[in-house]
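Hi R.,

Here's the input for the nicotinamide-adenine-dinucleotide complex you asked about:
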Amino acid sequence: MRPAPTLPPTNELFRMDGMRVLLTGAGGAIGSVLAKAFADLGAAVAVHDLNLDKVEPLAQEITDAGGQAYPIAADISDPIQCTELIDSAVGALGGLDVLVNGAGINRRKPILDVTVDDFDAITAVNMRAVYLLSQAAHPHLKASGRGSIVNLSSLSARYSFNTISVYAATKAAVSGMTRSFAREWAGDDIRVNCIEPAVVQTEFTKPLWGEEHRYRWFGDTTPVGRLAQAQELVGAVVFLATPASSYITGQGIVIEGGILAGGDWDSYAETNS
Ligand SMILES: NC(=O)c1ccc[n+]([C@@H]2O[C@H](COP(=O)([O-])OP(=O)(O)OC[C@H]3O[C@@H](n4cnc5c(N)ncnc54)[C@H](O)[C@@H]3O)[C@@H](O)[C@H]2O)c1
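And here is the predicted structure with nicotinamide-adenine-dinucleotide in place:
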């Protein structure tokens, strides 16, 4: 039997003071919101994206607000750059306590139009990079003694839509990897969890909600009656990254406004049309 960890007092359970965090895809809509939240809670954050243009202004904003942020560029579709990214982040932060795999891409197409290039491009970023970055981060997370990985999976891991077959497959893989990594690395004091959000209203998803008929469809078929906002993912990610969830590993938190709770079989009734 292993000893239980010493937890911070209740009012500090969700604090991130002294935590060294690498966030991939930090220049994106969700990533930039998460990066600012981590810094607000006291973490030092390595903010990664494809180009420095995407993360230097973010790092500056965090630094101007009194936080610590280090911009890093890497193309994580390249396995060598995945290893280099971890090395750069560890160099800048002086170690690593939390890896948040946030970078992701999609190419929405019907299945019969998907090319090998589409398949390889999406799987390289959404799936292979998550695996390789986690592998490269392992010794540093283990050395931390309170290591944690939070993967940005998706509701599409469980509940798909048309035109996202490859994306959905990669997110199902990420949720699966979350369990495998959690199982294998629990003994190294590394917890691995993911979030599985439904559509968040960002530029990434604008091709979906930007169409009037789909915008109405999301409102009508989501029990809470609206799309998620990026800020609404912060609580779950911080929970999974901090000692607040010290006995939770291998789990996915679904953030979907009640979609999986069930359907409304009266929605076709005349009074509701
Ligand atoms: N927006 C949503 O509705 C939604 C829902 C569920 C899950 N997610 C997931 O959340 C994450 C963030 O989504 P978002 O809406 O902020 O998207 P986004 O496009 O705004 O951000 C993704 C970031 O990843 C970066 N990226 C892409 N390919 C890269 C590469 N090869 N190397 C390095 N960086 C790369 C992009 O430059 C971008 O800044 C993604 O993993 C996405 O799959 C999003």
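One thing worth noting: The radius of gyration is 19 Å.

Cheers,
M.
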